[in-house]
Every structure is written in structure tokens, then in C-alpha cells.
UniProtKB/TrEMBL annotation:
<keyword id="KW-0812">Transmembrane</keyword>
<feature type="transmembrane region" description="Helical">
    <location>
        <begin position="139"/>
        <end position="157"/>
    </location>
</feature>
<feature type="compositionally biased region" description="Basic residues">
    <location>
        <begin position="421"/>
        <end position="439"/>
    </location>
</feature>
<feature type="transmembrane region" description="Helical">
    <location>
        <begin position="52"/>
        <end position="70"/>
    </location>
</feature>
<feature type="compositionally biased region" description="Low complexity">
    <location>
        <begin position="406"/>
        <end position="419"/>
    </location>
</feature>
<feature type="region of interest" description="Disordered">
    <location>
        <begin position="379"/>
        <end position="439"/>
    </location>
</feature>
<protein>
    <submittedName>
        <fullName>Uncharacterized protein</fullName>
    </submittedName>
</protein>
<keyword id="KW-1133">Transmembrane helix</keyword>
<keyword id="KW-0472">Membrane</keyword>
<feature type="transmembrane region" description="Helical">
    <location>
        <begin position="20"/>
        <end position="40"/>
    </location>
</feature>
<feature type="transmembrane region" description="Helical">
    <location>
        <begin position="237"/>
        <end position="255"/>
    </location>
</feature>
<feature type="transmembrane region" description="Helical">
    <location>
        <begin position="325"/>
        <end position="343"/>
    </location>
</feature>
<feature type="transmembrane region" description="Helical">
    <location>
        <begin position="292"/>
        <end position="319"/>
    </location>
</feature>
Length: 439
């Protein structure tokens, strides 16, 4: 065992409370430092009292991160090459079942859980500091910053809940027990395989309501908050923009085509080569989990193209409503992203078409193993002699004498040699056994 791996195994896993307490110094630095700098360097109108004041917030965040690095709870190191999707799946299982999943890399998963808890605390501290600054210096920029930090805290908090449960399960159970994770794994598998993958046409049609809201809503909001010169008409301009974003997310949630849940156990190293191979050869992936994961990614690619085109049209109409605003940068970035998604769209469309051409549901069983397929091809066809009391052909109720090894009727591949014993030479076929009552 090399020295880094030995050092990783020797570091104990911290408790959730230890991670939280060790993050408080850096969080208090952000909560106190952001309002303190604003009160000292900004006047009542929100203008900087000195030109070099803008350098101080840029130094406050690195100082808080450095303090956090010095005071954080010791934990195993997380390698940069570690794939995070399986680790997040393990954290979700621990949050649902209350126990560690079987065969879970406890060291790497615990390091990720610690980082999720710390990230939530630090971003939440930045949101509190920006809110206090907005109450003391009534500048709308601080309100927008506080709203963005609060939204990021909510998103990170959902992941931190999984990390907290994983750390709690690590110290409450002596070792991983598979009993608690069976229900979570079964529920996830059922949710993955019960819902079929939608067709490409269904994905396209279900994305049109969201695109219509973007194309109609953004020019109306721009017309309301900006004049022809690009100046804001009202200080409440962030409110309609946030309302439009919420409406788009709501429409996307309820109008999106139903699809299976993306299996977090399938990483990019599995579905990316399968996607590329399916696009070139037209052969679907062998395993159902990978097949469904590629189908979900294909749906996202098609939705990205439709959404990108809608955003380009919406920004172009907004530029006509407020010509004085610099729309060129946003329009260029949207065009580049839309072109990138459009290049991937034909491959996604072809995959969904092949998926529903071969399997109507998109979630059928995997292709049989080559040995199983060969055995079915080589099996001799039985004549139609009617069915007996057991519901199978009458000829099959009597045992037939086995054929010699290596013959075509024996059911073994022609390339398989006969079994040779070390002392007795070639093995002989056993004598046929006569059934009772047979004449």
C-alpha cells in the first residue's frame, strides 16, 4: 500500500456535528465581514468611498476559505479522479434508509458528505451577510446577491441532508449492513424501469410550452423594466425577472415528458461510450440500466436544443423592444450553446428512434448472452405431438438417452472437445436409465 492510501485509511471519519462546528469560524467571518466592509467602505447611497474598496471583497472570500482550510475537521482525502455520481447515490440511499449501503467506499463518500455540509453552511453564511448588508445599505444589488445565495443554499441543502445522514449512519452502525438499503435500491430500480423512455416526438412536443413562455414572457418583461435606451424604469426590476424564471421552471416541471429516473450508479464512463457506439452502429447497450440512462440523456439533448432556440428568439425580440441595452454578448453565448446542442441532437434523435423500434417501452430485458442464443439456435425442434397433463409435449416427459459428447445433438459447441480424464481416457456416455413402467 502506498503512502497516500495508507494516510487516507488512517484518518478517522468525522461526525456531522464536528463538521458543522469546524465550519462556523469561516461562516462567522462571512456573516460579519460582508456587512462590516459595506458599512466601512460604502456610503448611504451605496457608492464606494475609495477606489480601492472593490479589492476588499475579493480578499474576504479567499481569507474565509483559508480559515476554513485551517479549521475544518480532518477527513480522508478525496481523489480528483473519483467519480462523484456513485458516491452521491450512496449518500441518497443512506438518507432514505438510515443505514450504509453495501460495498460502499466509506472513505470517499464521507469526504464528499463533509464537503456538502460545509458548502451549505458557507453559502448560507454569505446569504445572511448579503441580507444584513441590504438592510443597512438599501441597494438592490445586495438584494439580488442575497436572493442568489439563498437559492444556492436551498439547492446545496438538499445534498447536505444526504451527507448529514451518511455521516450519522457511519457512526451509528459498526459496518455497512445491506438490509437497510434493500428497500431504497428496490424503489429506485422500480422507478427506473417502470416509466418508459419517451419518444423523440413526445419530448419535442412537451418542450414547446416552455419555449412559448420564454419567447412571449421575456420581451414583455424587458418592455416593462427597460426603456428604449436600456435604462431601468423601476427599482423593482429583479422581481418580474425572478417571476418569469419561476414560471418557466413550473411549466417545465408539469409539461415535461415523463421519463425514468436517471440511475446514479451509471456513470459517464459507462453511458458515453455506449451512446457513441449506438450512434455509429445502431446497436443498443446490452444492460437495461445503461440503455435507460442513455435514453434520458438523449431526451435532455433534444430539450436543450428547443430551449436554446427559444432563448435566442426571445433575446432577439427583447433587443427590438430595448435597442439601447447591450444584447450582443448574451445573444452570442446563447447561439454558441444552441449550436453545440444542435450538433448532438441528431444522434439523440436516432437513438430514441432505435430504442422504440427495437423495444416499444424502452425498458425491456437485456439481450441474451451469446451462449444462450447459440443454445436456442442449436436446440432440435420437437414434433407437434400434443400436450399431456403437465402442459408440455408428451414426448418430453420421458427422458431420452444423452447423445455422445461432441455430436451436434448433444447441445455443445462444435469447437468444444470431448472431456478427457487423466486416468481413464475419454469419458463414456452414461447408460440410459429406463423409466418405471416403460416397455
Amino acid at each position: 500500500m502506498d503512502q497516500p492510501a495508507q494516510r487516507t485509511d488512517e484518518v478517522p471519519l468525522p461526525r456531522a456535528g464536528q463538521v458543522l462546528m469546524r465550519t462556523l469560524p469561516a461562516a462567522l467571518t462571512l456573516v460579519i465581514g460582508i456587512p462590516g466592509l459595506a458599512l466601512w467602505g460604502l456610503d448611504e447611497n451605496g457608492d464606494a468611498r475609495a477606489d480601492w474598496f472593490l479589492l476588499l471583497p475579493g480578499l474576504l472570500v479567499p481569507a474565509a476559505l483559508l480559515l476554513h482550510r485551517l479549521t475544518k475537521a480532518p477527513r480522508p482525502a478525496l481523489s480528483p479522479d473519483t467519480e462523484l455520481a456513485p458516491l452521491k447515490w450512496d449518500l441518497a440511499i443512506a438518507a432514505e434508509s438510515g443505514r450504509l449501503p453495501p460495498r460502499s467506499p466509506a472513505q470517499a463518500a464521507a469526504a464528499l458528505a463533509c464537503w456538502q455540509v460545509e458548502k451549505t453552511v458557507l453559502v448560507g453564511a454569505a446569504a445572511v451577510g448579503a441580507t444584513i448588508t441590504w438592510t443597512t445599505r438599501a441597494v438592490w444589488l445586495w438584494l439580488v446577491l442575497a436572493a442568489l445565495c439563498a437559492a444556492a443554499t436551498v439547492v446545496a441543502g438538499r445534498q447536505a441532508r444526504h451527507g448529514w445522514a451518511y455521516l450519522h449512519a457511519t457512526h451509528s452502525t459498526g459496518r455497512p449492513t445491506p438490509s437497510g438499503a434493500v428497500s431504497a435500491i428496490s424503489a429506485a430500480n422500480q422507478q427506473t424501469t417502470a416509466v418508459p423512455v419517451p419518444t423523440a416526438g413526445q419530448v419535442l412536443v412537451r418542450t414547446l410550452p416552455e419555449a412559448a413562455v420564454m419567447v412571449i414572457g421575456l420581451p414583455l418583461v424587458v418592455r416593462f423594466v427597460l426603456d428604449e435606451n436600456g435604462e431601468t424604469r423601476t427599482p423593482w426590476w429583479p422581481v418580474p425577472l425572478l417571476a418569469l424564471a419561476g414560471l418557466v421552471m413550473l411549466v417545465d416541471r408539469y409539461a415535461q415528458a415523463p421519463r425514468p429516473r436517471y440511475d446514479q450508479r451509471v456513470g459517464e464512463a459507462q453511458w458515453k461510450p455506449a451512446f457513441a457506439a449506438a450512434a455509429k452502429t445502431g446497436v443498443l447497450p446490452e444492460y437495461p440500466e445503461v440503455r435507460v440512462a442513455v435514453g434520458v440523456v438523449a431526451c435532455q439533448n433534444i430539450e436543450g436544443v428547443v430551449t436554446g432556440v427559444a432563448m435566442v428568439v426571445a433575446v432577439a425580440l427583447s433587443a427590438l423592444a430595448a435597442p439601447g441595452f447591450p444584447w450582443l454578448g448574451a445573444l452570442g453565448a446563447l447561439v454558441i450553446l444552441t449550436v453545440i446542442n444542435a450538433v448532438r441532437a441528431p444522434r439523440a434523435w436516432a437513438y430514441l428512434r432505435a430504442l422504440h423500434t427495437i423495444e416499444p417501452t424502452g425498458c425491456g430485458p437485456a439481450a441474451p448472452h451469446p451462449w444462450v442464443a447459440w443454445s436456442h439456435e442449436q436446440a432440435p425442434a420437437l414434433p407437434d405431438q400434443g400436450r399431456g397433463r403437465l402442459g408440455r409435449p408428451a414426448a418430453t416427459r420421458r427422458r431420452q438417452p444423452p447423445a455422445a459428447p461432441g455430436s451436434p445433438a448433444a447441445g455443445t459447441p462444435p469447437s468444444t472437445p470431448a472431456t478427457v480424464s487423466r486416468h481413464r481416457g475419454p469419458t463414456r456416455a452414461p447408460r440410459p436409465r429406463r423409466c418405471r413402467g416403460a416397455r
